[in-house]
């Protein structure tokens, strides 16, 4: 079974960006975005570079910048960069997503796209989700026929999640199709959250603890959990320098169910190297 990764760094930033874009106007705002984010680090972070080596089939991202492309280039990995803001790119991905070459797909466009094409403002966002039929077909295809791993995605984007809600109702499958790395706070019930993701999106969550650090959410256990998954596939994610300076990494308190799902996810990734059954697609 093919496995894709869906990445988002900070979903709240998107909503703030949309409001700012509506205020400034699309031309001024796009110039600001390119100036602010275009000259960022020329070399991607070691964690991103190691993540790029995990055996996902494709990488789908909501980010506009191209750090994941830089990570692939640094690792010597072959890839093709795709922007859903360009209809030709979108059509090409739909035609070729079954092929072996990894494609990095920017679902909301990327910085190099022409004026008005990046889904930054509310109007641009509605245009992509409501007036672009190929994009709607892509979301249905991903939800219905692929196995996705969501990383850093909060499932609060109603437009994107609606496609997965609809597909879950249409398929009526007895088990989940997708995985998600999800933070769980102390006040949240893990079984209720698991049932919600299973029933609503056909997603099997792999939970990690979100601790409180002086009243702020601490997601440091996310990296420890990703290390477990990476180690199971023969890779090892590197910790950021600030985490290394802080001493030993926190231990992820996975319950037996969480450990089972994490191992299941690692097994799915390993199948990309060594397919082990008749239902595994090359």
Q: Can you describe what's shown?
A:
With 282 residues, this protein is of the alpha/beta class. The protein has one domain (3-270). The chain has helices spanning 11-24, 26-37, 46-52, 67-74, 87-96, 122-130, 133-145, 158-171, 190-201, 220-232, 241-245, 256-270, and strands at residues 3-7, 59-61, 80-83, 103-106, 147-151, 178-184, 203-209, 211-213, 216-218. A 7-stranded parallel β-sheet has the order 3-4-2-1-5-6-7, with helices on both faces. Strands 8-9 form a two-stranded antiparallel ribbon. A hairpin with a 2-residue loop joins β8 (211-213) and β9. α3 packs across α4, α7 crosses α8 (158-171) and α10 (220-232) packs across α12. The radius of gyration is 19 Å and the shape is globular. Mean pLDDT is 74; it is low at 9-14, 240-253 and 272-282.
Distance between the termini: 8 Å
Overall number of domains: 1
Low-confidence stretches: 9-14, 240-253, 272-282
Radius of gyration: 19 Å
The largest β sheet comes out as: 7 strands, parallel
The coarse overall form would be globular
Structural class: alpha/beta
Residue share in helices? 40-55%
* Percent strand: 5-15%
Number of strands: 9
Query: How would you spell out the order of helices and strands?
Result: EHHHEHEHEHHEHEHEEEHHH
What is the strand arrangement across the widest sheet? Answer: 3-4-2-1-5-6-7
Task: Please state the average pLDDT score.
Answer: 74
Number of alpha- plus pi-helical segments: 12
């Amino acid at each position: 079974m093919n496995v894709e990764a869906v990445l988002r760094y900070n979903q709240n930033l998107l909503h703030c960006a949309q409001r700012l874009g509506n205020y400034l106007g699309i031309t001024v705002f796009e110039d600001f975005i390119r100036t602010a984010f275009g000259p960022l680090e020329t070399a991607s972070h070691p964690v991103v570079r190691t993540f790029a080596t995990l055996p996902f089939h494709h990488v789908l991202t909501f980010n506009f910048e191209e750090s994941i492309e830089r990570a692939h280039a640094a690792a010597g990995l072959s890839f093709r960069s795709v922007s859903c803001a360009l209809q030709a790119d979108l059509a090409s991905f739909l035609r070729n997503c079954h092929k072996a070459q990894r494609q990095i797909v920017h679902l909301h466009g990327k910085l190099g796209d022409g004026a008005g094409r990046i889904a930054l403002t509310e109007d641009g966002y509605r245009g992509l989700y409501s007036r672009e039929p190929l994009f709607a077909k892509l979301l249905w295809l991903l939800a219905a026929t692929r196995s996705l791993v969501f990383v850093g995605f909060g499932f609060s984007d109603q437009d994107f999640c609606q496609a997965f809600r609809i597909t879950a109702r249409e398929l009526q499958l007895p088990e989940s199709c997708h995985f998600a790395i999800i933070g769980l706070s102390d006040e949240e019930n893990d079984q209720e959250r698991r049932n919600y993701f299973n029933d609503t999106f056909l997603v099997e969550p792999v939970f990690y603890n979100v601790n409180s650090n002086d009243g702020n959410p601490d997601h440091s256990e996310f990296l420890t959990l990703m290390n477990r998954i990476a180690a199971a596939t023969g890779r090892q994610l590197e910790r950021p320098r600030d985490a290394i300076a802080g001493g030993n990494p926190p231990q992820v308190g996975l319950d037996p169910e969480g450990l089972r799902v994490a191992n299941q996810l690692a097994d799915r990734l390993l199948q990309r190297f060594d397919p082990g059954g008749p239902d595994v697609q090359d």
